[in-house]
Amino acid sequence: MNLFGHNGQWLMVDCGVTFDEPLDPKDAASGGRRFDVVSADPTFITQQPENLVGIVITHAHEDHIGALPYLWSRLKCPVYTTPYTAEILRRKLSRDGKQPNIPIIEVANNGMADIGHFNIKWMSITHSLPEPHALLIRTEAGTIFHTADWKIDSAPVTEQPFNQREFKQLGEQNILAMVCDSTNALRAGHSVSESACYSGLKQLISHAQGRVVVGCFSSNIARLITLAKIAAETGRYLALLGRSLLNTVGAAKATGHWPEDLIIIDAHHAGYLLPEEVLAVATGSQGEPRAALANLARDSYRDLSLDKGDLVIFSSIIIPGNEKPIENLVKALNARQIDTVMSEQTQLTIHASGHPCQEELKQMYQWVCPQVAVPTHGEDAHMLSNAQIAKSAQVPRTLTGKNGDLFMLAPNIGIRKSAVKTGRIPLNH
Question: HEC string of 334-352?
Answer without folding.
Answer: HHCCCEEEEHHHCCCCCCC
